[in-house]
Amino acid sequence: METVTKLFKNNIRQYGMIIALVVIMLLFEVLTNGLLLKPINITNLILQNSYILVLAIGMVLVIITGHIDLSVGSIAAFVGAVAAIMMVDWQLPAWLAVIASLLVGALIGAWQGFWIAYVRIPAFIVTLAGMLLFRGLTMIVLEGQSISPFPGGFQKISSGFLPDVQFSGLGLVSIIVGIVLTIWYIINELRERASQRKYGFEVVSQGLFLLKLIVVAAVTNLFTFVLASYAGIPNILVLLFVLIVVYSFVMNRTVMGRHVYALGGNEKAAGLSGVKTKKVTFWVFVNMGTLAAVSGLIFAARLNAATPRAGTNFELDAIAACFIGGASASGGIGTVFGAIIGGLVMGVLNNGMSLIGLGIDWQQGIKGLVLLLAVAFDIYNKNKRAA
Protein backbone atom coordinates (compact mmCIF):
# COMPACT_ATOMS: atom_id res chain seq x y z
CA MET A 1 0.00 0.00 0.00
CA GLU A 2 2.87 2.35 0.82
CA THR A 3 4.40 1.70 -2.61
CA VAL A 4 1.09 2.46 -4.34
CA THR A 5 0.72 5.72 -2.40
CA LYS A 6 4.27 6.77 -3.23
CA LEU A 7 3.83 5.88 -6.90
CA PHE A 8 0.62 7.89 -7.11
CA LYS A 9 2.15 10.92 -5.38
CA ASN A 10 5.14 10.95 -7.72
CA ASN A 11 2.87 10.85 -10.77
CA ILE A 12 -0.21 12.60 -9.38
CA ARG A 13 -0.88 14.85 -12.39
CA GLN A 14 -0.47 12.08 -14.95
CA TYR A 15 -2.50 9.49 -13.07
CA GLY A 16 -5.02 12.12 -11.96
CA MET A 17 -5.77 13.10 -15.56
CA ILE A 18 -6.09 9.46 -16.65
CA ILE A 19 -8.57 8.87 -13.84
CA ALA A 20 -10.40 12.09 -14.78
CA LEU A 21 -10.59 10.96 -18.43
CA VAL A 22 -12.04 7.58 -17.41
CA VAL A 23 -14.59 9.23 -15.10
CA ILE A 24 -15.65 11.74 -17.79
CA MET A 25 -16.04 8.96 -20.35
CA LEU A 26 -18.14 6.84 -17.98
CA LEU A 27 -20.26 9.87 -17.04
CA PHE A 28 -21.08 10.73 -20.65
CA GLU A 29 -21.56 7.05 -21.52
CA VAL A 30 -24.39 7.05 -18.97
CA LEU A 31 -25.76 10.50 -19.95
CA THR A 32 -25.80 9.62 -23.66
CA ASN A 33 -27.40 6.20 -23.10
CA GLY A 34 -24.37 4.36 -24.44
CA LEU A 35 -23.72 6.53 -27.51
CA LEU A 36 -20.30 7.83 -26.44
CA LEU A 37 -18.45 4.50 -26.59
CA LYS A 38 -20.11 3.13 -29.72
CA PRO A 39 -17.50 2.17 -32.36
CA ILE A 40 -18.63 4.84 -34.82
CA ASN A 41 -18.38 7.57 -32.17
CA ILE A 42 -14.95 6.40 -30.97
CA THR A 43 -13.73 6.65 -34.56
CA ASN A 44 -15.29 10.10 -34.90
CA LEU A 45 -13.56 11.19 -31.68
CA ILE A 46 -10.19 10.27 -33.19
CA LEU A 47 -10.92 12.04 -36.47
CA GLN A 48 -12.37 15.15 -34.82
CA ASN A 49 -9.49 15.68 -32.41
CA SER A 50 -6.49 14.51 -34.44
CA TYR A 51 -5.35 17.98 -35.52
CA ILE A 52 -5.55 19.32 -31.96
CA LEU A 53 -3.55 16.36 -30.63
CA VAL A 54 -0.83 16.98 -33.24
CA LEU A 55 -0.66 20.63 -32.14
CA ALA A 56 -0.56 19.58 -28.48
CA ILE A 57 2.55 17.45 -29.12
CA GLY A 58 4.42 20.48 -30.44
CA MET A 59 2.90 22.90 -27.94
CA VAL A 60 4.01 20.88 -24.92
CA LEU A 61 7.65 21.29 -26.01
CA VAL A 62 7.11 25.05 -26.33
CA ILE A 63 5.51 25.22 -22.87
CA ILE A 64 8.25 23.08 -21.30
CA THR A 65 10.81 25.65 -22.50
CA GLY A 66 8.79 28.34 -20.71
CA HIS A 67 7.24 29.91 -23.82
CA ILE A 68 3.82 29.97 -25.48
CA ASP A 69 2.69 29.95 -29.12
CA LEU A 70 -0.52 31.78 -30.02
CA SER A 71 -0.02 31.56 -33.78
CA VAL A 72 -0.48 27.83 -34.46
CA GLY A 73 -4.13 28.11 -35.51
CA SER A 74 -3.33 30.84 -38.03
CA ILE A 75 -0.30 28.91 -39.32
CA ALA A 76 -2.48 25.82 -39.77
CA ALA A 77 -5.02 27.87 -41.74
CA PHE A 78 -2.30 29.50 -43.89
CA VAL A 79 -0.61 26.19 -44.70
CA GLY A 80 -3.99 24.66 -45.57
CA ALA A 81 -4.61 27.57 -47.94
CA VAL A 82 -1.18 27.21 -49.56
CA ALA A 83 -1.72 23.45 -49.96
CA ALA A 84 -5.12 24.07 -51.60
CA ILE A 85 -3.63 26.50 -54.12
CA MET A 86 -0.87 24.04 -55.01
CA MET A 87 -3.16 21.00 -55.32
CA VAL A 88 -6.41 22.52 -56.63
CA ASP A 89 -5.31 25.59 -58.61
CA TRP A 90 -1.82 24.53 -59.75
CA GLN A 91 -2.66 20.80 -60.02
CA LEU A 92 0.59 19.74 -58.32
CA PRO A 93 0.86 16.12 -57.10
CA ALA A 94 -0.42 15.73 -53.53
CA TRP A 95 2.90 14.37 -52.21
CA LEU A 96 4.83 17.34 -53.58
CA ALA A 97 2.31 19.83 -52.17
CA VAL A 98 2.49 18.14 -48.76
CA ILE A 99 6.30 18.36 -48.66
CA ALA A 100 6.20 22.01 -49.76
CA SER A 101 3.55 22.77 -47.12
CA LEU A 102 5.67 21.23 -44.36
CA LEU A 103 8.63 23.34 -45.51
CA VAL A 104 6.42 26.45 -45.35
CA GLY A 105 5.47 25.55 -41.78
CA ALA A 106 9.12 24.99 -40.82
CA LEU A 107 10.13 28.34 -42.36
CA ILE A 108 7.38 30.12 -40.43
CA GLY A 109 8.59 28.42 -37.24
CA ALA A 110 12.16 29.50 -38.04
CA TRP A 111 10.98 33.09 -38.63
CA GLN A 112 9.28 33.23 -35.22
CA GLY A 113 12.05 31.27 -33.50
CA PHE A 114 14.63 33.80 -34.72
CA TRP A 115 12.85 36.75 -33.09
CA ILE A 116 12.27 34.82 -29.87
CA ALA A 117 15.66 33.09 -29.49
CA TYR A 118 18.11 35.62 -30.91
CA VAL A 119 16.38 39.02 -30.74
CA ARG A 120 14.90 38.08 -27.34
CA ILE A 121 11.40 39.37 -28.03
CA PRO A 122 8.93 37.55 -25.71
CA ALA A 123 7.24 34.58 -27.39
CA PHE A 124 3.81 35.92 -26.42
CA ILE A 125 4.38 39.08 -28.50
CA VAL A 126 6.03 37.35 -31.46
CA THR A 127 3.37 34.65 -31.77
CA LEU A 128 0.53 37.14 -31.19
CA ALA A 129 1.94 39.12 -34.13
CA GLY A 130 2.20 35.82 -36.05
CA MET A 131 -1.41 34.99 -35.26
CA LEU A 132 -2.57 38.28 -36.82
CA LEU A 133 -0.06 38.17 -39.70
CA PHE A 134 -0.81 34.65 -40.91
CA ARG A 135 -4.56 35.00 -40.42
CA GLY A 136 -4.40 38.07 -42.65
CA LEU A 137 -2.22 36.25 -45.20
CA THR A 138 -4.70 33.36 -45.25
CA MET A 139 -7.51 35.72 -46.19
CA ILE A 140 -5.33 37.41 -48.83
CA VAL A 141 -4.21 34.12 -50.38
CA LEU A 142 -7.76 32.72 -50.46
CA GLU A 143 -9.28 36.10 -51.44
CA GLY A 144 -11.94 35.55 -48.79
CA GLN A 145 -13.26 32.35 -50.44
CA SER A 146 -12.92 28.62 -49.87
CA ILE A 147 -10.95 26.41 -52.26
CA SER A 148 -12.07 22.81 -52.85
CA PRO A 149 -12.17 19.90 -53.48
CA PHE A 150 -8.84 18.25 -52.72
CA PRO A 151 -7.63 15.13 -54.58
CA GLY A 152 -9.03 11.86 -53.23
CA GLY A 153 -5.62 10.58 -52.16
CA PHE A 154 -5.02 13.65 -50.01
CA GLN A 155 -8.44 13.36 -48.37
CA LYS A 156 -7.54 9.86 -47.17
CA ILE A 157 -5.09 11.41 -44.69
CA SER A 158 -8.08 12.26 -42.51
CA SER A 159 -10.87 10.06 -43.83
CA GLY A 160 -9.08 6.88 -44.90
CA PHE A 161 -8.53 3.61 -43.03
CA LEU A 162 -5.88 0.91 -43.16
CA PRO A 163 -6.78 -1.95 -45.52
CA ASP A 164 -8.52 -4.65 -43.52
CA VAL A 165 -9.92 -8.16 -43.91
CA GLN A 166 -13.42 -8.68 -42.57
CA PHE A 167 -14.37 -11.83 -40.66
CA SER A 168 -17.72 -12.12 -38.84
CA GLY A 169 -18.09 -8.34 -38.92
CA LEU A 170 -14.64 -7.66 -37.44
CA GLY A 171 -11.50 -6.30 -39.06
CA LEU A 172 -8.78 -8.91 -38.60
CA VAL A 173 -5.92 -6.47 -39.26
CA SER A 174 -7.12 -4.23 -36.42
CA ILE A 175 -7.28 -7.20 -34.02
CA ILE A 176 -3.77 -8.32 -35.04
CA VAL A 177 -2.41 -4.79 -34.59
CA GLY A 178 -3.78 -4.77 -31.03
CA ILE A 179 -2.06 -8.07 -30.25
CA VAL A 180 1.25 -6.93 -31.78
CA LEU A 181 1.16 -3.65 -29.83
CA THR A 182 0.48 -5.57 -26.63
CA ILE A 183 3.47 -7.87 -27.18
CA TRP A 184 5.69 -4.90 -28.08
CA TYR A 185 4.61 -3.04 -24.94
CA ILE A 186 5.20 -6.03 -22.63
CA ILE A 187 8.68 -6.67 -24.07
CA ASN A 188 9.63 -3.00 -23.66
CA GLU A 189 8.36 -2.91 -20.08
CA LEU A 190 10.26 -6.09 -19.17
CA ARG A 191 13.47 -4.66 -20.67
CA GLU A 192 12.99 -1.38 -18.83
CA ARG A 193 12.38 -3.18 -15.53
CA ALA A 194 15.48 -5.36 -16.03
CA SER A 195 17.57 -2.29 -16.85
CA GLN A 196 16.38 -0.45 -13.73
CA ARG A 197 17.21 -3.44 -11.55
CA LYS A 198 20.63 -3.80 -13.16
CA TYR A 199 21.58 -0.25 -12.19
CA GLY A 200 20.05 -0.44 -8.72
CA PHE A 201 16.96 1.72 -9.28
CA GLU A 202 13.84 1.15 -7.21
CA VAL A 203 11.09 -0.71 -9.08
CA VAL A 204 7.45 -1.37 -8.23
CA SER A 205 6.47 -4.73 -6.78
CA GLN A 206 5.94 -7.65 -9.12
CA GLY A 207 2.21 -7.67 -8.36
CA LEU A 208 1.76 -4.02 -9.33
CA PHE A 209 3.93 -4.50 -12.38
CA LEU A 210 1.80 -7.43 -13.58
CA LEU A 211 -1.40 -5.46 -12.86
CA LYS A 212 -0.10 -2.58 -14.99
CA LEU A 213 0.69 -4.94 -17.87
CA ILE A 214 -2.74 -6.58 -17.66
CA VAL A 215 -4.60 -3.25 -17.58
CA VAL A 216 -2.66 -1.74 -20.50
CA ALA A 217 -3.00 -4.95 -22.54
CA ALA A 218 -6.75 -5.09 -21.85
CA VAL A 219 -7.32 -1.44 -22.78
CA THR A 220 -5.21 -1.73 -25.95
CA ASN A 221 -7.01 -4.81 -27.22
CA LEU A 222 -10.44 -3.50 -26.25
CA PHE A 223 -9.69 -0.29 -28.15
CA THR A 224 -8.58 -2.11 -31.32
CA PHE A 225 -11.58 -4.45 -31.00
CA VAL A 226 -13.92 -1.44 -30.94
CA LEU A 227 -12.19 -0.01 -34.04
CA ALA A 228 -12.40 -3.43 -35.73
CA SER A 229 -16.15 -3.43 -35.11
CA TYR A 230 -16.63 -0.34 -37.31
CA ALA A 231 -14.21 0.48 -40.14
CA GLY A 232 -10.83 -0.47 -38.74
CA ILE A 233 -7.84 1.72 -37.89
CA PRO A 234 -7.95 5.28 -39.29
CA ASN A 235 -4.86 6.46 -41.19
CA ILE A 236 -4.64 9.47 -38.93
CA LEU A 237 -4.38 7.24 -35.85
CA VAL A 238 -1.25 5.63 -37.34
CA LEU A 239 0.28 9.09 -37.85
CA LEU A 240 -0.60 10.09 -34.28
CA PHE A 241 0.88 6.89 -32.87
CA VAL A 242 4.16 7.46 -34.75
CA LEU A 243 4.36 11.08 -33.54
CA ILE A 244 3.66 10.09 -29.92
CA VAL A 245 6.30 7.34 -29.95
CA VAL A 246 8.95 9.48 -31.68
CA TYR A 247 8.44 12.57 -29.54
CA SER A 248 8.21 10.57 -26.31
CA PHE A 249 11.51 8.91 -27.20
CA VAL A 250 13.14 12.25 -28.05
CA MET A 251 11.99 13.90 -24.81
CA ASN A 252 12.82 10.97 -22.52
CA ARG A 253 15.85 9.30 -24.09
CA THR A 254 17.87 11.90 -26.03
CA VAL A 255 20.20 14.77 -25.24
CA MET A 256 17.91 17.17 -27.11
CA GLY A 257 15.00 16.25 -24.86
CA ARG A 258 17.09 16.73 -21.71
CA HIS A 259 18.17 20.15 -23.02
CA VAL A 260 14.54 21.19 -23.56
CA TYR A 261 13.67 20.29 -19.96
CA ALA A 262 16.82 21.98 -18.65
CA LEU A 263 16.03 25.17 -20.56
CA GLY A 264 12.52 25.32 -19.10
CA GLY A 265 13.70 24.49 -15.60
CA ASN A 266 16.31 27.26 -15.38
CA GLU A 267 17.61 28.99 -18.52
CA LYS A 268 20.67 30.56 -16.88
CA ALA A 269 21.72 27.32 -15.18
CA ALA A 270 21.19 25.42 -18.44
CA GLY A 271 23.39 27.91 -20.29
CA LEU A 272 26.14 27.61 -17.69
CA SER A 273 25.92 23.81 -18.01
CA GLY A 274 26.70 23.98 -21.72
CA VAL A 275 23.19 23.93 -23.17
CA LYS A 276 22.94 26.15 -26.25
CA THR A 277 19.75 27.78 -25.06
CA LYS A 278 19.17 30.00 -28.11
CA LYS A 279 19.61 27.10 -30.50
CA VAL A 280 17.25 24.88 -28.49
CA THR A 281 14.58 27.60 -28.40
CA PHE A 282 14.95 28.21 -32.14
CA TRP A 283 14.50 24.54 -33.05
CA VAL A 284 11.56 24.10 -30.69
CA PHE A 285 9.70 26.79 -32.66
CA VAL A 286 10.79 25.31 -36.00
CA ASN A 287 9.30 22.03 -34.78
CA MET A 288 6.12 23.82 -33.69
CA GLY A 289 5.74 25.41 -37.10
CA THR A 290 6.16 22.04 -38.81
CA LEU A 291 3.56 20.35 -36.60
CA ALA A 292 1.20 23.30 -37.12
CA ALA A 293 1.57 22.62 -40.85
CA VAL A 294 0.76 18.93 -40.28
CA SER A 295 -2.32 19.97 -38.31
CA GLY A 296 -3.39 22.35 -41.06
CA LEU A 297 -3.07 19.63 -43.69
CA ILE A 298 -5.07 17.18 -41.55
CA PHE A 299 -7.85 19.71 -41.00
CA ALA A 300 -7.98 20.70 -44.67
CA ALA A 301 -8.15 17.03 -45.70
CA ARG A 302 -10.97 16.37 -43.22
CA LEU A 303 -12.94 19.45 -44.33
CA ASN A 304 -12.02 18.80 -48.00
CA ALA A 305 -11.56 22.54 -48.36
CA ALA A 306 -9.31 25.42 -47.36
CA THR A 307 -11.32 28.18 -45.71
CA PRO A 308 -10.38 31.63 -44.33
CA ARG A 309 -11.78 30.72 -40.90
CA ALA A 310 -9.90 27.41 -40.56
CA GLY A 311 -7.80 27.00 -37.42
CA THR A 312 -9.87 29.37 -35.28
CA ASN A 313 -9.15 28.72 -31.58
CA PHE A 314 -6.86 25.77 -32.37
CA GLU A 315 -4.12 27.39 -30.30
CA LEU A 316 -6.39 27.69 -27.27
CA ASP A 317 -7.42 24.02 -27.45
CA ALA A 318 -3.78 22.92 -27.83
CA ILE A 319 -2.60 25.07 -24.91
CA ALA A 320 -5.49 23.85 -22.75
CA ALA A 321 -4.64 20.22 -23.61
CA CYS A 322 -1.04 20.72 -22.42
CA PHE A 323 -1.98 22.38 -19.13
CA ILE A 324 -4.75 19.88 -18.38
CA GLY A 325 -2.25 17.12 -19.16
CA GLY A 326 0.20 18.29 -16.51
CA ALA A 327 2.46 20.89 -18.16
CA SER A 328 3.52 23.74 -15.87
CA ALA A 329 2.96 27.38 -16.82
CA SER A 330 6.41 28.19 -15.41
CA GLY A 331 8.15 25.69 -17.72
CA GLY A 332 10.35 22.64 -17.15
CA ILE A 333 7.46 20.22 -16.55
CA GLY A 334 5.27 18.30 -19.00
CA THR A 335 5.11 15.14 -21.10
CA VAL A 336 3.92 14.25 -24.59
CA PHE A 337 1.70 11.52 -23.13
CA GLY A 338 0.20 14.02 -20.68
CA ALA A 339 -0.61 16.45 -23.51
CA ILE A 340 -2.38 13.66 -25.40
CA ILE A 341 -4.42 12.77 -22.30
CA GLY A 342 -5.30 16.45 -21.85
CA GLY A 343 -6.36 16.67 -25.50
CA LEU A 344 -8.54 13.58 -25.09
CA VAL A 345 -10.17 15.08 -21.98
CA MET A 346 -11.08 18.19 -24.01
CA GLY A 347 -12.20 16.06 -26.96
CA VAL A 348 -14.45 13.81 -24.87
CA LEU A 349 -15.93 16.87 -23.14
CA ASN A 350 -16.71 18.48 -26.51
CA ASN A 351 -18.17 15.29 -27.96
CA GLY A 352 -20.12 14.31 -24.86
CA MET A 353 -21.63 17.76 -24.37
CA SER A 354 -22.65 17.88 -28.03
CA LEU A 355 -24.29 14.45 -27.78
CA ILE A 356 -26.43 15.48 -24.81
CA GLY A 357 -27.41 18.73 -26.55
CA LEU A 358 -25.56 21.34 -24.49
CA GLY A 359 -25.23 24.68 -26.28
CA ILE A 360 -21.88 26.12 -27.35
CA ASP A 361 -22.14 28.74 -24.58
CA TRP A 362 -22.27 26.06 -21.87
CA GLN A 363 -19.54 24.07 -23.58
CA GLN A 364 -17.14 27.04 -23.60
CA GLY A 365 -17.86 27.81 -19.96
CA ILE A 366 -17.33 24.23 -18.78
CA LYS A 367 -14.06 23.86 -20.75
CA GLY A 368 -12.79 27.12 -19.25
CA LEU A 369 -13.62 25.89 -15.75
CA VAL A 370 -11.84 22.56 -16.37
CA LEU A 371 -8.70 24.42 -17.54
CA LEU A 372 -8.76 26.71 -14.50
CA LEU A 373 -9.15 23.79 -12.09
CA ALA A 374 -6.31 21.86 -13.79
CA VAL A 375 -3.86 24.77 -13.44
CA ALA A 376 -5.02 25.46 -9.86
CA PHE A 377 -4.39 21.77 -9.06
CA ASP A 378 -0.87 22.08 -10.50
CA ILE A 379 -0.08 25.16 -8.39
CA TYR A 380 -1.53 23.53 -5.27
CA ASN A 381 0.72 20.47 -5.71
CA LYS A 382 3.76 22.64 -6.40
CA ASN A 383 3.18 24.70 -3.24
CA LYS A 384 2.61 21.54 -1.22
CA ARG A 385 5.92 20.04 -2.39
CA ALA A 386 7.75 23.31 -1.67
CA ALA A 387 6.36 23.37 1.86
TrEMBL record:
Task: Tell me the membrane topology, using the record's own terms.
Answer: Multi-pass membrane protein
Q: What is the protein's given name?
A: Xylose transport system permease protein XylH
Where found? Cell membrane
One GO cellular component assignment for this chain's record is: plasma membrane
Transmembrane ranges, per UniProt, are 15-36, 42-63, 94-114, 121-142, 167-187, 208-227, 233-250, 282-303, 318-349
Chief location: membrane
**A Pfam cross-reference name:** BPD_transp_2
According to its UniProt entry, the function of this protein is described as: Part of the binding-protein-dependent transport system for D-xylose. Probably responsible for the translocation of the substrate across the membrane.
Has UniProt tagged this entry with the keyword Transmembrane?
Answer: yes
Q: Kindly list any coiled-coil regions of this protein.
A: none
Gene Ontology molecular-function annotations = transmembrane transporter activity
List keywords of the entry alphabetically. Answer: Cell inner membrane, Cell membrane, Membrane, Sugar transport, Transmembrane, Transmembrane helix, Transport
Highest taxon of the source?
Answer: Bacteria
Q: Which organism is it from?
A: Paenibacillus barcinonensis
